[in-house]
Write a structure and sequence with these properties.
621 residues; alpha+beta; Rossmann fold; eight-stranded mixed sheet; four-stranded antiparallel sheet; 12 helices; AB_hydrolase_fold; hydrolase; S9 family peptidase; serine-type endopeptidase activity
Length: 621
């Protein structure tokens, strides 16, 4: 059997599954492949019969939605010529389809219980070809671009007559869903001159042009409805955006479903029961509430998405050595798809080794990948830092980790305080202290790793991360001489400009770094930029021009200051792609990024080369 090697293009061999849906005996999901030659992603909707296993395919399609009676399938398809989105409806048995609506911007599609009407939620903007204008904040948002006076738009579409029978608008960031024949609408609550984004909502019930306000300024939002009860995710009281989300049911009375200790990612109602996902110490598990809450699908894995109908759940599950595949849970867990099995059978993968360590007043989870080594051979080390800070590492597939472990590097990653997957107090410990004790946690984890693995080379340690991980990479190089190279991606270097420039800075930075940014010393003290003179290791800064979460100024300022001080610094700016460009950039974009990633650590931790000749590197690729 011939093996497949890990390189910057291996990711394009995988099939990526998303957006699973189940109704009656049918499952639908999106199958995406990266086409490197044409530099595009090709998405196919797959419809699978759970009884027979038969599969049918709709090319160039996404957002599959099976009607409640199981007879119809709605899906979307891009119209490149009109720069719009088409909504189609197909017969589930024959897949004979018709186009029912063409609109410019679609965010969600949902069937009514009558299996005839669709609720389509999208948005409209001014769309002047020369300029944008706004009188609200934020003026832009990652992956969404400039708002330009955006309003959320709701269409009720009759799929038989192919006519929009009702239409209304709400402020940006609103969302909605069916509640019987009414529509539940979540609208960000406003406090003075700005919306209380991510924290407080006003919840309305809309029908036939009239609306009723169910809740005002509540720290939760409606996430599902069965026409009788409403499922709400959030808290009864909330001080911080970073607090955990919990679950409640409202049917005239507000009743708790789950109130910790863990966070809740996603939740759905089914037959009076509630299914939901929680991050749990490096895992993501499925829970069921039926009067009491308990884990029903638990293990060393991540559930990336799920849907449920009539007691049967479909789940996308990944493990540390495999990208997600589709599973069915109906009392037992069964794997439905194995698109990537033949590929991974020919790839050497590396299982994470778990360890626990003490850092100050806490017990912390850590993991590492051990490369194939000869006896007494020393190997370089790369420390990965997750995003967030309320992100999480653990039992999930991370391409760069497997890629670099295959090239002979130890890979180390931990969940420092501030991470998700633990109790709320653990997550909140970084507020107004980002870069302090959490950095100490990472350093303590590295020391414990060295104790466990004497073949790890302390003199060849690199560090990398994206977003908060990029901030921590910048910070680490200013605070410690342990690291001999760093790759910082889309990270923060100056918290004051992040507060004023980021799409979420007016909310998030005030919480993570502190209030009163113009006078608060934290905005300087906790910014790597003001400690740049301490940097001794070479650094590669990678950033995306269309990142509005951690905008380009963050890497560009750090790069300019480091160069002005005579430090070894390099910057690669990708012209397209949002904050998550590492997985959402175009195929060629991603391949080039992986190439940069490989070569920088190879040249700085293995070959000890001076400089970083990008033309030579790309030519070699």
């Amino acid at each position: 059997m011939s093996n497949i090697e890990w390189d910057e293009k291996t990711f394009s061999r995988f099939a990526y599954l998303g957006d699973p849906r189940v109704r009656v005996s049918s499952v639908a999901y999106v199958l995406t492949k990266a086409n490197l030659q044409d530099n595009k992603y090709e998405s196919t909707v797959v419809v699978e019969d759970l009884e027979t296993g038969a599969r049918r395919f709709i090319e160039n399609a996404s957002m599959p939605r099976i009607s409640p009676d199981g007879k119809k399938l709605a899906f979307t398809r891009p119209n490149g010529e009109k720069k719009a989105t088409e909504i189609w409806v197909a017969d589930v048995q024959t897949l004979s389809a018709k186009r029912v609506l063409t609109i410019k911007n679609v965010r969600s599609v949902e069937w009514n219980d009558d299996s005839r009407r669709l609720l389509v939620v999208g948005f409209k903007r001014r769309d002047d070809e020369d300029f944008v204008f706004d009188d609200d904040v934020p003026v832009w948002f990652d992956s969404m671009g400039f708002f330009d006076g955006e309003k959320t738009t709701f269409w009720i579409l009759d799929t038989e007559s192919e006519e929009v029978i009702e239409r209304f608008e709400k402020p940006r960031f609103s969302s909605g869903m069916w509640h019987g024949d009414s529509i539940l609408v979540n609208v960000p609550h406003r406090e003075g001159s700005k919306p209380a984004l991510f924290k407080f909502y006003d919840i309305y019930l809309w029908k036939d042009g009239e609306e009723e306000k169910l809740f005002e300024k509540v720290p939760f939002e409606a996430v599902d409805s069965d026409g009788k009860a409403i499922l709400l995710r959030g808290k009864k009281e909330k001080r911080f955006i970073s607090e955990h989300e919990w679950l409640y049911i409202y049917d005239g009375e507000l009743r708790p479903v789950y109130e910790g200790p863990l966070d809740v990612y996603d939740a759905k109602l089914d037959g009076g029961k509630v299914y939901f996902l929680t991050p749990d110490a490096g895992r993501v598990n499925l829970w069921l509430w039926d009067g009491k809450a308990e884990r029903i699908v638990a293990g060393d894995h991540w559930v990336y998405g799920f849907d449920v109908h009539d007691g049967r759940a479909v789940l996308l599950i990944a493990i540390a050595t495999r990208v997600p595949e589709l599973y069915l849970y109906d009392g037992e867990l069964k794997q439905i798809t194995d698109y990537n099995g033949p590929i991974f059978d020919r790839l050497k993968t590396f299982e994470p080794r778990h360890f626990r360590f003490r850092s100050k007043d806490l017990e912390i989870d850590g993991w590492y990948l051990r490369p194939e080594l000869k006896e007494d051979e020393k190997a370089p080390v790369i420390v990965f830092v997750h995003g967030g800070p309320k992100g999480m590492y653990g039992h999930r597939f991370v391409y760069e980790m497997q890629l670099m472990a295959s090239r002979g590097y130890y890979i180390v990653f931990v969940n420092p305080r501030g991470s998700n997957g633990y109790d709320e107090d653990f997550a909140l410990r970084v507020l107004e202290r980002t870069g302090l004790e959490d950095f100490e946690d990472i350093m303590a984890g590295i020391e414990e790793f060295f104790r466990l693995e004497p073949q790890a080379d302390r003199d060849r340690v690199g560090i990398t991360g994206i977003s908060y991980g990029g901030f921590m990479t910048n910070w680490a190089l200013t605070q410690s001489d342990l690291f001999k190279a760093g790759i910082s991606e889309n990270g923060i270097s100056y918290w004051l400009t992040s507060y004023a420039f980021s799409d979420i800075g007016l909310w998030y930075d005030l919480e993570v770094i502190g209030p009163n940014p113009l006078k608060n010393e934290n905005y300087r003290k906790l910014s790597p930029l003001f400690h740049a003179e301490n940097v001794k290791a070479p650094i590669l800064l990678i950033h995306s021009l269309e990142d509005y979460r951690c905008p380009l100024d963050q890497s560009l300022m750090f790069y300019n200051v480091l160069k002005d001080m005579g430090k070894e610094a390099y910057i690669a700016v990708f012209k397209k792609g949002p904050h998550g460009h590492s997985i959402r950039g175009s195929p060629k974009h991603r391949a080039k990024r992986y190439k940069l990633f490989i070569e920088f650590f190879e040249r700085k931790l293995r070959k000890y080369e001076e400089g970083f000749d990008i033309e030579k590197i790309l030519k070699e690729g």
